Amino acid sequence: MNAEIIGARQFTILVFLYSIGTAVLVIPAVMVGEVKQDAWISSTVGVVLSFLVIKLFISLANRTPNLSFVEANKKILGKFIGKLTAVGFIIMTFISASQLLYYIGSFLQTEVMPETPPVTFAILVNLALIYATYLGIEVFARSAEILLPVFSLLFLIFVICISPEIDVKNVQPILETTASPFISGTIIFMSIHSLPLIVLLMIFPSAINEHKSAQKGFYIGTIAGGAVLTIIIVLCILVLGVTSTSSRTFPSYALAQRISIGNFLQRIEVVMAFIWFISIFIRLYLYFYATVKGLGQILNIKDHRQLILPLAMISTAISQIIHPNIIHSTEYNKVTWPLFISSFAILLPLLLLIVAKLRKINPAEKDSNTINERVDNEENNIN
Fold first, then answer.
1. Which class in CATH covers the domain with range 8-373?
2. Which of 134, 204, 219, 351 has the greatest number of beta carbons closer than 10 A?
3. Which H/E stretch holds residue 55?
């Protein structure tokens, strides 16, 4: 299968929308439940600390600029151990994709179509996912460019329309939270916002045409995505209050329901739903794409597209049993997920970076290589 190459601008857009993901709906409740009215401060600290996470990812990626994350595991740790860690990474992305299907079904059934079973939504979304994955990352990246202005416009409309409902008293007193929940809230925020960006090493920088510009885009997209999430958290606190935000499953959707302009423009929560669906589908696609491409590289399959249909079918089934209810899902996001993602987004990259330095594995080619040369190298690395 021919190697796929995307532009640095397209990569920045993917980082931005991916870093928001499903968090735009679920993270306000989790954060406010943990840090109360100081949740926006905790999320701001999380965005700043994400600089270190992205720096780690870039440092590792620069060691093997022509390889995906799965291929880098095999090259740095050896075929046996590298395949084991790569399999663990693929399991993580596959479970995460299934979990996002669960969120889609749960949200649409709870808020939009209560009489429709969640599996119906999972199947419909998976049909779109199968088609998008078959077309490849290049086509999907161009689609993300089209969706970005739509996302930005809807988000701006949402912020402007909800602003009259703000009550500054809801955010007071400031800095009342103790250190322990504050740290816990920051970790939870990063586990949902920036740590999952490890998945993008499946395309960065091996599938990017301008490495240096893409590095800047990595930082820019992460900061912009963190800013959007922080704004959502602040608005939930200012409008709904701490108690209401922490007790709701999807507080930002409830926030959109509060919009009322002159008793004429009301019930425009579909705006928030569409914003969420754009960002969550971007994250779902990249999780699933990483699973399909990574598994194909582990099994040495030249055309990984033949894995799309069976993996999509399995993912749909898993999405129906991964969480028995929304309470289990919330606890998973607060307790299990931060530990799970940290092992692949912090511990594994650190291990790979240390081993690469000890083995003196350095990039064989400079960024000045042409796109065609990098494409040829990638094709040669796929057996």
1. mainly alpha
2. 204
3. helix 39-63
**Are 332 and 100 spatial neighbours (Cβ–Cβ below 8 Å)?**
no
Alpha carbon distance 321, 381 (integer Å)? 37
Three-state secondary structure call for residue 94 = helix
Positive or negative, the CA dihedral 86, 92, 95, 99 is negative
Cβ distance 69 to 85 under 8 Å? Answer: no
| DSSP designation for 336 | I
pLDDT digits (tens, 9 = 90+) for 285-318: 999 999 999 999 999 998 889 999 999 999 999 9
The identity of residue 363, as a single letter, is P
Taking only the tens place, the pLDDT of each residue in 136-166 is 999 999 999 999 999 999 889 888 888 888 8
In residues, how long is the chain? 383
Residue with tokens 């003196």: 360
Tell me the pTM: 0.90
Q: Please state whether 256 falls in left (phi above 0), alpha (psi between -120 and 50) or beta.
A: alpha
- Which 3 state secondary structure label does DSSP give 293? helix
Domain boundary assignment for the chain: 8-373
User: Are the beta carbons of 193 and 226 closer than 8 angstroms?
Assistant: yes
Q: Which residues pair with 266 in a beta bridge?
A: 260
Going by their DSSP bridges, the two strands 265-266 and 260-261 should be labelled as antiparallel
User: What phi, psi does 263 have (nearest 5°)?
Assistant: 55, 25
φ and ψ of 92, to 5 deg: -60, -45
Share in percent of the chain as helix, strand, coil (round to 5): 80, 0, 20
CA distance 291 to 302: 15
Question: Using the 8-state DSSP alphabet, how is residue 345 labeled?
Answer: I
pLDDT digits (tens, 9 = 90+) for 96-120: 999 999 989 888 888 788 888 989 9
Tokens 């703000």 belong to 166
Contact partners, residue 283, CB within 8 Å, separation at least 6 = 17, 18, 21, 22, 100, 196
Cβ count within 10 A of residue 51: 13
Largest Cα span, the chain: 67
